[in-house]
UniProtKB/TrEMBL annotation:
Pfam families: DUF4880, FecR. The keyword Membrane applies. Residues 29-70 form the FecR N-terminal domain. It comes from Halomonas salipaludis. This is Fe(2+)-dicitrate sensor, transmembrane component. InterPro entries: FecR, FecR_N, Ferrdict_sens_TM.
Length: 337
């Protein structure tokens, strides 16, 4: 039997046994090395035959090969928003073989269950619809449902004969259901659970460890993954889900809706909260000095021009905005103020 490439480990240890969803890193490394060799211009028939024998030697070998092949297909047909992705902007001239041999292995390993699918770059890169930091986007689905994606949002859409499913990977989306009746149930799925609307307009926010749902019209039923917990939210209510359970319905925060329109409406909001919100719509860091974090401000600030918003905040409270770079901003007391 032909051996794998000499520079690849031959098998996994018992601690690295593969499951149906997660492959052994060493098997993935072997598969990536075989693929890199066959992508080269000087690949021989003997190497191709040896690779085939390696794939046939164990089921996990073939599964690793097929998953890498699937990624290769996606790299060759990137969605339009991929041109904005930080993941590939700096490496457009790198060959496919170079991607695997020069740092690309980490990318591919991560994509197969080792953490990368939850990074912003990867999610925006391969989602059906996505927005970059500071960008919003409107989408009309095939059934007439309208979506408005907030900043740094990624989602997948899966419609079939039995259901309509929107999987929110990150960020926040405003959903306005279609007026035309459709017998297929519609759901928005996050890591914590699913939201089922009943003729409604609502928004769903995927936080790192929780989901928040706000209902503006109609009703939305929440169902938490891995439990029988359910909760119905009516118009004017908001609620959420996390690992511990569900949060009780609370009055709606109408200011959230204004963010989908490019505005931050602040009513006696702490400066720290204003800074945190603006930071979601720009690259880099927005910090507050200890002296200003608890100051409160009311007003309307632009989310489409965060520099102007920072300037307005500073004027309202006689503060100073210091730009160490465009990516490092500090809000602090104005000298002599």
């Amino acid at each position: 039997m032909s051996r794998p490439p000499a520079d690849a480990p031959r098998k996994c240890s018992s601690q690295e046994d593969v499951s149906q969803d997660t492959l052994c890193p060493r098997v993935l490394e072997q598969a990536s090395l075989w693929m890199a060799r066959l992508w080269s211009d000087d690949a021989t028939a003997a190497q191709r035959e040896a690779c085939l024998q390696w794939r046939q030697a164990a089921p996990e070998h073939e599964r690793a090969w097929q998953q890498l092949q699937a990624i290769d297909v996606r790299l060759g047909a990137l969605p339009r928003h991929a041109a904005r992705s930080e993941l590939f902007e700096s490496s457009r001239q790198v060959s496919r073989r170079g991607l695997l041999q020069w740092g690309g292995l980490a990318v591919l390993l991560g994509s197969l269950g080792f953490g990368l699918p939850r990074t912003p770059q990867w999610q925006r890169q391969f989602a059906d619809y996505a927005t970059a930091v500071g960008e919003t986007r409107e989408v009309t689905l095939s059934d007439g449902t309208q979506l408005r994606l907030d900043t740094d949002t990624a989602l997948d859409v899966r419609f079939d004969a039995d259901q309509r499913r929107i999987r929110l990977l990150r960020g926040e989306v405003l959903v306005t259901t279609a007026e035309a009746p459709d017998v297929r149930p519609l759901s928005v799925v996050t890591r914590q659970g699913a939201s089922y609307p009943i003729g409604t307009r609502f928004s769903v926010h995927q936080h790192d460890d929780s989901t928040r749902v706000l209902v503006y019209q109609g009703q939305v039923m929440l169902e938490r993954h891995g439990s029988s917990q359910r909760m119905t939210l009516n118009a004017g209510q908001q609620g959420g889900m996390n690992a511990a359970g569900m949060t009780s319905p609370a009055p709606l925060d109408h200011a959230v809706l204004s963010r989908f329109q490019g505005r931050l409406v602040a009513e006696r909001m702490r400066v720290a909260e204003v800074a945190e919100t603006l930071a979601r719509y720009r690259h880099g860091v927005v910090r507050c000095s200890a002296e200003v974090v608890d100051l409160r401000v009311s007003g309307v600030f632009s989310l489409e021009d965060t520099d102007r918003a920072l300037a307005s905040l500073a004027d309202a409270l006689s503060l100073e905005v210091v730009y160490r770079t465009s990516l490092w901003v500090t809000i602090q007391p104005r000298p002599g103020g």
